[in-house]
């Protein structure tokens, strides 16, 4: 019995080693893209996005400087996700001017004191509530922008409302840390839990925070 067990273990080890080596021997067929090609594609994409989604709306009374969606359920609207995406691509493109333009426009048109409302409609009305992914993208972009300033690659910048890259990123993180993010809306977790406990006798908190919300799901 003991010899059978040892034989089985030996076979298993050999199989594992053989499989591992076989995998390692497979040549890497992934296409290689050099920096020159990547930069060319990035620059072309970024230029097209600016000409298509930013510049046509610069004389608009609604969200000039934002990245607008010309093909959406509300053509010409702008959403906070596009703010985050635009800021990230502007970082890669090393385009501080457009980075600042998008961020300042969002501060003017979408910032509500704690987070960015997720949608600005063509008529100027807003769909309130925050989109988690947008908040995180904007925070990360601002941190990276501050790093570029610290490295001397970008100029220090204060937006017209007095906001600075790192300070605003910290403020946004503090808001997210002190609140619960649920399906698009930031709200205070402890208050919501207290309200729930007043309405039900169960002590379970697994589903305690279901509240009517507005914003993207």
What does this structure look like?
The protein is globular, with a radius of gyration of 25 Å. Helix 3 packs parallel to helix 5 and helix 5 (132-150) packs antiparallel against helix 6. 53% of the residues lie in helices and 7% in strands. The chain contains seven helices and six strands. By secondary structure, it is of the alpha+beta class. The chain has a four-stranded antiparallel sheet with strand order 1-2-3-4. A two-stranded antiparallel sheet has the order 5-6.
Question: Which stretches are low in confidence, meaning pLDDT under 50 for 5 or more residues running?
Answer: 8-24, 184-197, 199-217
Distance between termini? 59 Å
Global morphology:
globular
Helix content: 40-55%
Main structural class: alpha+beta
**Mean pLDDT over the residues:** 78
Relative strand content:
5-15%
Largest sheet: 4 strands, antiparallel
Give the tally of β-strands: 6
**Radius of gyration, taken over Cα atoms and rounded to an integer in Å:** 25 Å
Encode the helix/strand succession as letters: HHEEHHEEHHEEH
Strand order of the largest sheet: 1-2-3-4
Number of DSSP helical runs = 7
Explain briefly what this protein structure is.
By secondary structure, the chain is α+β, with helices and mostly antiparallel strands.
């Amino acid at each position: 019995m003991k010899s059978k067990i040892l034989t089985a273990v030996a076979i298993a080890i050999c199989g594992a080693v053989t499989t591992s080596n076989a995998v390692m021997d497979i040549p890497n067929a992934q296409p290689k893209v050099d920096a020159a090609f990547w930069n060319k594609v990035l620059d072309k994409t970024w230029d097209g996005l600016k000409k298509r989604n930013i510049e046509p709306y610069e004389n608009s009374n609604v969200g000039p400087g934002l990245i607008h969606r010309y093909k959406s359920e509300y053509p010409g609207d702008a959403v906070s996700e596009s703010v985050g995406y635009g800021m990230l691509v502007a970082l890669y493109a090393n385009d501080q001017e457009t980075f600042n333009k998008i961020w300042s426009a969002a501060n003017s048109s979408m910032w509500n004191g704690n987070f960015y409302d997720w949608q600005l409609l063509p008529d100027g009305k807003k769909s309130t509530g925050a989109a988690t992914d947008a908040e995180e993208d904007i925070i990360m972009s601002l941190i990276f922008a501050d790093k570029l300033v610290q490295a001397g690659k970008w100029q220090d910048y204060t937006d017209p409302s007095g906001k600075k890259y790192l300070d605003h990123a910290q403020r946004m993180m503090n808001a997210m840390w002190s609140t619960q993010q649920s399906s698009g809306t930031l709200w205070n977790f402890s208050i919501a839990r207290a309200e729930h406990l007043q309405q039900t006798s169960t002590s379970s908190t697994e589903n305690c925070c279901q509240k009517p919300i507005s914003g993207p799901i």
